[in-house]
Task: structure prediction
Amino acid sequence: MPNYMLKRGSVIAILVLFAGLSLLPSLGGIIVKNSENLNNIYIEKSPSGIDWWSKFHHDLNNSGYSSSPYGPETNNIIWTYPTDFQIICSPAVINNKVYIGSDDEYFYCLDTITGALIWRNEIPGGTSVSSPCIVDGRVYVGTTYDHVFCWDSDTGEEIWRFYKGYGSSRSPAIYDGNVYISFNPINNTNFYGKICCLNAYNGSEIWNRTFFDGTINHVALYEGKVLVPHYLGRLYCLDGETGETIWDANTGGAYGAPAIINGKVYASADGIKCLDVNNGDEIWHYPGNWSYCSPAVAYNKVYYLSSDGKVICLDADTGNEVWTYVTGSDYEHAFTSPAVADEKVYVGICSNGNLICFNASNGNILWKYQVSPGLLFSSPAIANGRLYIGSTLTYKVYCFGNPSSPPNPPIINGPTNGKVDVSLNYTFNSIDPDGDDVYYYIKWGDGYIIEWDGPLSSGMDFKITHTYTERGNYTIEAKALDGYGYESDWATLEVTIPRTRASSYLWYQLFLERFPLLERLLKFWLL
Result:
C-alpha cells in the first residue's frame, strides 16, 4: 500500500509540474489570442440590393435613375421634417439617412424611416442649390458664402473645409479621390464661373478653371472626363486630372447639367441634344424651348422638363418624341430635374409646386401632390422605395412612400447544439403581410454579422451555414426588412457548443507529444 500511494503521489506531482511548465512559455499567446477574439468584430457583408441616391441626380453620370424595385404608387406621406427657411437643393440618401441643406443656414441629417433628426450643422449662407454628395462615409457640400465642407456622415464632425470665396456653389461630384465642384463668384457686379478639383481626403486644391464670360452649373463625370454646362449655351468637356479642355460644343441657350449614358451625352439645349462623349459631335437634336433641368435617362428614354411647361419623353437613340404632358403653365422655370424608378417618372413643377408621378411608358398621370404651393426648386430623390424632396415655400422635407406593414419576425430553424469547427445549417424565413421582398440581418452571437442579405421573396427560406470556433453558449438574433424600410422585431435561437471528449483527448495527446519523457515516466510508475 505505501508503494502504491507513493507512486500515485509522484504521478500527480509530475503532472502538476509539467502542466505548469507547459503554460509558462505560451501563457502570453493565449491571452493575446483571446483578447483579439473579444475585441474584433468580423462582418460578413453581402450586396444589400439597395440602390442609394448618394448625390444630385443619383450618380456621377447624372442619370436620374434608381434601380429601386419600388417607387411610391400614391401620394402617401410617410413623414415631414420642418426647417426654418426655403429648401432649394435636392436631398441625397444613403445608409438609411437623408442629407439636405436649407437656406435657414443649417444642414440636416435625418433618419429615412422616421424623419427624426440625427445631426445638423450650421452653414453660413446656407447651401442654396448645392446638393450634397456622400462617399466613403463623408459628406461633401458647397455653400453660398465662403466654403466647401467635408463632414463625417454619421456624426457630422468636420473633417476639413476649403475656402473658395463668396459665390453660390453647385453640387459636388467625387471620383478617384478628387472632388469636383463648380460655383459662381462675383467680380464687381458680374458673376462668373469657376470649377475646382480638390483632394477628397484633406481638401487641398489640385487645380481650378475660371470661365469669366458667364456662370456654370452642376458637373457630370464620365471615365475621367468632367462635363461643365455654361450659361451662354456651351458644354465643356475637361480632363479630370488637369482641367484642360478636351472639347466644347454649342448647346444653344441651355444651362442644365448633362446626363451621360453608354457614351452619349444628353444635354439641355434649345430642346435636347445628344452628343458623343469622346469628341462632342452631335448625334441628334430635338428642337424645343430651353431648360435648366438635368434630363433623366432610363429604359432607353430621355425625360426632361422644358421652359414652355412641358414634360417630354424622347427615344434615347433617335430623339423621336414618345409622349408629352402639358403642365398648363405658359412659363415654367424648369429648375427641377426628373427622377425615375419602378417604371415611373417623378417630376417637380417649379411654377406651381406640384410633384407629379407619371407612367414612364405612356405619360399617364398616376398621382400628384403640391409640396410647395407656387414655387419649387428641389428635385426628388428615390431610394429603397421612398421618395424625398424639399419644399421651397413650406420649408419642409417630405418623404413619400407606399403604406406598408413590417415583415413578421423570422422563424429560425436549425440545431441548438453543435461542435467546435463543425458547420451548422440554418434557415431563416419571414413572411411579409404585403407580399414584399425581404432582407435579413443576422447576428451569430460570436461577433460575426450578416448585414441585410437579399432580396428574397416573402416566405422563401434563406439557407446559410455557420461555424463556431470556440465552445460556449450563443444567441442567434435575426430580423427582416421589407423594400419600404420597415423592420420586423428580433427573433432569437439559443445555441450551445460544449467541450467535447475528443477535444480533451486531443489536449492530452499534444501534451504527451511535447513532453515524451513524461510518457515514459508515467508508464514506469503506473506499471
